[in-house]
């Protein structure tokens, strides 16, 4: 009984991503705010994930055998797999320790087989996209902006994702969605399907329930919330039943998609699938400017306190105008120990992109390899208030004994 009461009254955990809230005011109303960057004539294709958006881009561009795509060496691996699935070759270029791309190394990798260049705006911070645009225009290459981290992020007044020929987004990283990605195509000559089929309903409802459950577990504020904890316990059985039903359905041969699956050995079906209507409804209700303002405020609060952090340093030392940061990334030589310290305090930090794709020659890219070993992502999303941030700061300042 003591353990249960302790759970009911303990401080709210700090989740890595925002949660859905069942009774949040206006949750079902369209905000009318534009979330995805578009130019006149642009087209948007909603996908199950950003990986699916990259696959759809590769198919639309006709990439296949004999074609080469240049990809930054610092990657999560899910940028690599869609191109390999079309039969294209991948070649990697250097990313510096500050996450800026090495344009000279990129230029050295271009040859007669090169068809496209992928550039990643890490954690919502912009690359020197104009330089890449000039390089691609001079050589007749397609520029693909990977904005999986950069929904709502701008370079000054210009939204990220408007300079490339196509841009891909991971909507579920920034918004409380069960799944969701998007391909934005600015070139009218590139063919796109009008829409993609919806994913399995059971997969969608399991993820929706999980997101709603997290909303009970981490209410706004950050202090003890017995009512929310009781609701979390009450819904646990429902979520467990839904997960069991998904497992049984998969065993019976009915495909089930999990956007949290980090393996590279995934089937093609999710890459050819769009968003469920329930996810689209949540997407339309998002308050874009409010999300940007809160994320920037939270990032700046951690940055202001960072001189006192023990065992880690911020990856970015300033927050440029217009940037909507995805997380607060830090570098730590003992990243695993830092993550354990944060998680013990109820803070869902992760070793960022620790999994490595076999296609990357990691020995040739020591900076990317070090980033894989050392970067930790700390939450700053729109659900977090001052009490959450104070707890994060307290843990990051505490010395490890």
Mean pLDDT: 89
What CATH architecture label of the domain at 288-397 applies?
A: Alpha-Beta Complex
Specify the helix fraction band. Answer: 25-40%
CATH fold field value of the domain at 288-397: Aspartate Aminotransferase, domain 1
How far apart the termini lie comes to 32 Å
What spatial order of strands do you see in the largest sheet? 1-9-8-5-4-2-3
Rounded Rg: 21 Å
Overall outline: globular
Major beta sheet, specifics? 7 strands, mixed
> What is the CATH first-level class name of the domain at 288-397?
Alpha Beta
Q: Strand share of the residues? A: 5-15%
- Given helix and strand content, the structural type is alpha/beta
Name the CATH superfamily classification of the domain at 288-397. Aspartate Aminotransferase, domain 1
Q: How many distinct beta strands?
A: 13
Structural notes for this entry:
It is a single chain. This protein has 401 residues and is of the alpha/beta class. It has a domain at 288-397: Alpha-Beta Complex (Aspartate Aminotransferase, domain 1), CATH 3.90.1150.10. 36% of the residues lie in helices and 13% in strands. The protein contains 13 helices and 13 strands. The chain has helices at residues 2-9, 50-60, 81-85, 103-108, 129-139, 171-174, 201-217, 226-251, 277-284, 288-305, 335-344, 366-374, 386-397; strands at 43-47, 68-72, 89-93, 114-120, 142-147, 154-155, 158-159, 166-170, 181-185, 313-314, 328-331, 350-351, 375-378. The strands form 3 sheets. The protein has a 7-stranded mixed β-sheet with strand order 1-9-8-5-4-2-3, sandwiched between helices. The chain has a 4-stranded antiparallel β-sheet with strand order 10-11-13-12. A two-stranded antiparallel sheet has the order 6-7. A hairpin with a 2-residue loop joins strand 6 and strand 7. Helix 7 runs antiparallel to helix 8 and helix 10 runs parallel beside helix 13. The longest helix has 26 residues, at 226-251. The chain is globular. The two termini are 32 Å apart. The relative contact order is 0.18. Residues 1-5 have low confidence and may be disordered.
């Amino acid at each position: 009984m003591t353990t249960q009461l302790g759970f009911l009254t303990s401080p709210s955990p700090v989740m890595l991503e925002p949660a859905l809230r069942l009774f949040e005011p206006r949750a079902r109303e369209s905000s009318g705010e534009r979330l995805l960057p578009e130019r006149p004539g642009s087209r948007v294709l909603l996908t199950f994930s950003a990986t699916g958006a990259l696959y759809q881009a590769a198919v639309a561009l006709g990439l296949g055998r004999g074609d080469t795509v240049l990809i930054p060496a610092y990657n999560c691996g899910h940028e690599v797999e869609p191109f390999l699935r079309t039969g294209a070759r991948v070649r990697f270029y250097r990313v510096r320790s500050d996450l800026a791309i090495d344009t000279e190394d990129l230029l050295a990798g271009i040859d007669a087989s090169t068809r496209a260049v992928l550039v990643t705006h890490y954690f919502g911070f912009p690359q020197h996209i104009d330089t890449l645009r000039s390089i691609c225009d001079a050589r007749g290459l397609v520029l693909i902006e990977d904005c999986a981290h950069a929904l709502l992020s701008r370079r000054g007044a210009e939204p990220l994702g408007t300079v490339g020929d196509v841009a891909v987004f991971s909507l579920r990283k920034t918004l409380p969605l069960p799944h969701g990605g998007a391909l934005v195509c600015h070139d009218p000559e590139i063919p796109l399907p009008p829409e993609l089929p919806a994913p399995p309903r059971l997969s969608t409802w399991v993820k929706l329930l999980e997101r709603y459950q997290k909303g009970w577990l981490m209410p706004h504020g950050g202090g003890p919330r017995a009512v929310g904890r009781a609701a979390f316990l009450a819904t646990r059985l429902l979520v467990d039943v839904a997960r069991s039903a998904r497992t049984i359905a998969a065993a019976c041969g009915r495909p089930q998609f999990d956007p949290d699956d980090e393996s590279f050995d995934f089937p093609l079906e999710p890459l050819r699938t769009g968003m469920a209507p329930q996810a689209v409804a949540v997407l339309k209700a998002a308050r874009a400017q409010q999300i940007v303002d809160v994320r920037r405020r939270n990032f700046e609060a951690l940055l202001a306190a960072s001189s006192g952090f023990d065992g880690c340093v911020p990856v970015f030392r300033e927050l440029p105008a217009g940037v909507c940061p995805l997380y607060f990334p830090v570098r730590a030589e003992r990243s695993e120990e830092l993550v354990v310290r944060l998680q013990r305090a109820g803070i869902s930090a992760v070793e960022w992109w620790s999994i490595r794709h076999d296609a990357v020659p990691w020995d040739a890219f020591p900076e990317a390899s070090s980033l894989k070993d050392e970067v930790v992502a700390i939450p700053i999303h729109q659900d977090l208030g001052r009490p959450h941030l104070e707890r994060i700061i307290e843990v990051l300042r505490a010395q490890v004994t």
